[in-house]
Amino acid sequence: MSLGAVDVLVVGGGPAGMAAGISFGRAGLRTLVCESGSLPADKPCGEGVMPAGLAYLERLGVSPYLDLEHTRALAGIHYRSDCGASASARFAEGPGRGIRRTELSRAFCERAQEIDALEVRPRTPVRLGLRGPDGTEAWLDGRKATARLIVGADGFRSEVRRWAGLQGVCPRRRRFAIQQHFRCAPWSEYVEVHWAGDAEAYVTPCGRKEVGVAVLWAAEEKKTKGGQRLMASMLSRFPQLGASLRGAEPSAGARAIGPMHQVARSPVCDGVGLVGDASGYLDAITGEGISLALAQVQALYDAIGPWMISHDGVPTARDLQGYSRRISGMVRQHQGITRLVLFLSRNPRLAERAIKGLGRQPELFRWLLSANMGAVSAASFPKLEMVRLATALVRG
Ligand SMILES: Cc1cc2nc3c(=O)[nH]c(=O)nc-3n(C[C@H](O)[C@H](O)[C@H](O)COP(=O)(O)OP(=O)(O)OC[C@H]3O[C@@H](n4cnc5c(N)ncnc54)[C@H](O)[C@@H]3O)c2cc1C
């Protein structure tokens, strides 16, 4: 049985996919979002939405649907090393928010229901078929649909990326993550990042009585099995954090994920645009994925939405080049900072010195947070402070 033709088929109902559905659907384009799992969706994530991401949620009309009970304002980031170094900075752009993934997904779904041209289908994995002049064939639960534009929003292991021939070569050093929620009152208004020699733990307040803890580490082999035992062994590397969590019951099971680093050769080809983690993912170490995904969706819509409204047929890779160009600078800046932090994570002694240095220069730390979320450009780089930090790194 055929489901007929749509303008835009979005594969994946995470933040990127739902934002794409809302953006194209509210412009009157017939848009279908298919999510393979159930909705509202959950996912191992640090759940810190940065100020830039909150601004996109506002623009998409999602913010009014958030139940603040399942969220918590975030003042900034606080780094703590296991040797006692500490540095914190407030976001220059105002507070961010810790938001449970299920709550974010529920708010997206409610907002989507208001849009006539948008249909969201949970439990509907998509299999893509042939590309023709009128669109791409897609099989949804054995039923065929045709779409002029496929938006690949199916996460960092994207099948759309592979199907489109856009998969890049992934590096050999692989990092994994495990995440779990605990029932306890948040003890800080910051996202706390604990640095041990071989792993980092992120603590995000995400409700009045809940914190999320995500641990990231590098491993030679795939290591995502073991749930509760794996989480306990990871947490044993962070005695300070262990003390803060003493007596707190887990409010959900532990879930592991990885390897995180995934590469796309390009975010576009004929009839296809990749957004969010599907367009390539480096690491969760700087916790910006949701904000970046929402920025990409905005860039995709700006680049091709008006074309889709005024033309028939399938946009070519050339028509989609504007999107490619818009996101390359934004991704490069974010990945540059992520690579710097990853470098420190591989060199614990340098990390210790960097945290001490940032502790003495909160303005530089603040600038790095702003640059990471794309709120300031690399051109506004504070040279003097950077020289001071580099000196601190070299001298120890
Ligand atoms: C440990 C960890 C901590 C993180 N912490 C933060 C943080 O604090 N702040 C932040 O902003 N970001 C953080 N991130 C990154 C953030 O989680 C991602 O960047 C974000 O979820 C990207 O959204 P997305 O919609 O692209 O992908 P996803 O959220 O992965 O959504 C993809 C969706 O596609 C669906 N799907 C897959 N295949 C198909 C198919 N064939 N058909 C239909 N549906 C399909 C999946 O079920 C999934 O729901 C973290 C990531 C990790 C791993």
Description:
By secondary structure, the protein is α+β, with helices and mostly antiparallel strands. It is 35% helix and 27% strand. The chain contains eleven helices and 19 strands. Strands 1, 2, 8, 9, 10, 11, 18 and 19 form an eight-stranded mixed sheet that branches. Strands 5, 6, 12, 13, 14, 15, 16 and 17 form an eight-stranded mixed sheet that branches. Helix 7 packs antiparallel against helix 8. It is globular and about 60 Å long. The site of flavin-adenine dinucleotide (FAD) has 40 residues, from helix 1, strand 3, strand 12 and helix 7. The site of flavin-adenine dinucleotide has 40 residues, from helix 1, strand 3, strand 12 and helix 7.
Q: Under the CATH scheme, which architecture of the largest domain would be assigned?
A: 3-Layer(bba) Sandwich
* Strands, total number: 19
Molecular shape: globular
CATH topology of the largest domain: FAD/NAD(P)-binding domain
The first-level CATH class of the largest domain is given as Alpha Beta
**Ligand set:** flavin-adenine dinucleotide
Radius of gyration: 21 Å
Helix content: 25-40%
Q: What sequence of helices (H) and strands (E) makes up the elements?
A: EHEEHEEEEHEEEEHEEEEHHEEEEHHHHH
Instruction: Point out poorly predicted stretches.
Output: none
Q: Which percent band covers the strand fraction?
A: 25-35%
- Helix-strand category: alpha+beta
Give the mean pLDDT: 93
Number of helices: 11
CATH homologous superfamily identity of the largest domain: FAD/NAD(P)-binding domain
Task: Supply the number of structural domains.
Answer: 3
- Profile the largest sheet: 8 strands, mixed
Report how far the terminal alpha carbons are from each other: 68 Å
